[in-house]
Design goal:
There is one protein chain. The chain has 227 residues and is of the alpha+beta class. It has a single domain, classed as Aminohydrolase, N-terminal nucleophile (Ntn) domain (Glutamine Phosphoribosylpyrophosphate, subunit 1, domain 1), CATH 3.60.20. Helix content is 39%, strand content 26%. The protein contains 6 helices and 10 strands. The strands form 2 sheets. The protein has a 5-stranded antiparallel β-sheet with strand order 8-1-2-9-10. A 5-stranded antiparallel β-sheet has the order 3-4-5-6-7. β9 and β10 form a beta hairpin. α4 runs antiparallel to α5. It is globular.
């Protein structure tokens, strides 16, 4: 009978982490940042139908990078969890924190128990009457509560540094978009074109459903007004 080679648990976890990180880093980054009326997500995404940013529930949004089919599964699962809890109890009982914890538990279990870890990194955002909550969930289930801004995927560390210099929690939607575009252009030899940006977010001044998605025309008009 063939003997399987021994691999230490430490080496196994290291190999899984490197595998997941490599897949995630190949994708374009997503930036999320608070602004005066809520939270804005911006990503370089040439596709008009395969979105990185989506609505989960009334005041909760979802952004992800990595393998599209994997984070699409997570998005759909999050919507189902939110719908069941909102129907069983009350819509106000559905929170971004609870959803982020559910994602963290699922990704953590997959990282340690599955044959292949998820190549996914995601952010769950909730807009509140007096602020914004941003939860960053990694491929291994590690979760952090971000203070106003976050970047995931691609060269996220450099983009986060650029965001720190530009971030203003009281900025207008236009100001937040300009800051996000500037941060995404970090490390590029060009300014990211408006037509290639996916722009969406949560606006607390809207009705029950806070999510919005900006069209390419609206994005271009906002950016042109600053030039």
């Amino acid at each position: 009978m063939a003997m399987m080679p021994y691999v230490s648990p430490e080496q196994l976890m290291k190999d899984r982490a490197e595998f997941a990180q490599k897949g995630i880093s190949r994708g374009k980054s997503v930036v999320g940042l608070a602004y005066a009326d809520g939270v804005l997500f911006v990503s370089e995404n040439p596709s008009t139908s395969l979105h990185k940013v989506s609505e989960i529930y009334d005041r909760i949004g979802f952004a992800a990078v990595g393998k599209y089919n994997e984070f699409e599964q997570l998005r759909v699962a999050g919507i189902r969890i939110a719908d069941v809890k909102g129907y069983t109890y009350a819509r106000e009982d559905v929170t971004g924190r609870a959803l982020a914890n559910a994602y963290a538990n699922f990704l953590g279990a997959g990282f340690t128990e599955s044959s292949k870890p998820f190549e996914v990194e995601l952010v769950v955002a909730e807009v509140l009457p007096d602020g914004v909550e941003l939860y960053h969930v990694r491929y291994d289930g590690f979760i952090t509560d971000e203070a106003g801004y976050v970047a995931i995927g691609g060269i996220s560390e450099a983009i986060t540094t650029a965001l720190a210099d530009q971030f203003d929690p009281q900025a207008s939607l236009q100001g937040a978009l300009v800051a996000a575009r500037h941060a995404l252009s970090t490390g590029e030899d060009r300014e990211v074109e408006p037509a290639g940006l996916e722009v969406a977010g949560l606006d607390r001044t809207r009705g029950r459903r806070k999510f919005f998605r900006a069209s390419a025309v609206a994005v271009a008009e906002l950016l042109e007004a600053t030039e």
